[in-house]
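Our consortium's second objective concerns turning raw sequence data into structural hypotheses that experimental partners can test. To show how far this objective has progressed, the report includes one record in full. It was chosen at random from the queue rather than selected for favorable results. The single chain below, 88 residues long, was entered without modification.
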Amino acid sequence: MRSPRCTTSTATSPSHSPLAGIGGSIPIVSALAGALPHAEALLVGTSDGHANIHGPDERVLLSEFENATIAEADFLGRYAEVFRAHGS
């Protein structure tokens, strides 16, 4: 069985989506980790590598945002199915 992450990248596009990316720090993550040390965080980006997020020519295409939302909902649905099947 393929993992939910591997199958959901094709929900809106056949192209490969990265498993992880890097970028600037996101202050809310460290604040949440301090307040809820046993919680896990999942950050989901809604852009491609050409969006220049937080740069002078930053852009977000509505089609990318829509596709990312669909893919995220698909992933969470698949994750819930696997979690229910295998328990915590």
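The partners drew two points from this record. The mean pLDDT is 75. The helical segments are 4-8, 27-35, 62-86. Both points have been shared with the crystallography group to help prioritize constructs.
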